[in-house]
Design goal:
Layout lengths: L2 H5 L5 H31 L5 H6 L2
């Protein structure tokens, strides 16, 4: 994520890499859980973000 440069412009390269890897690890952990929840809600007929946005 290039935004790390903006947040920590004066940090060392090692710190920027660690921040980047930490953000990637958090996203890699959160997204499968989020998709599983959305899929379960969709299959049970509940409201999902996609149905909210598209108005189904």
């Amino acid at each position: 994520m290039n935004i790390v440069d903006t947040w920590q412009g004066h940090a060392s390269v090692v710190v920027k890499i660690l921040i980047n890897l930490t953000l990637d690890a958090v996203l890699a952990f959160i997204w499968p859980i989020t998709w599983a929840i959305w899929l379960f809600k969709y299959m049970s007929g509940g409201e999902t973000p996609l149905t909210t946005v598209l108005g189904f």
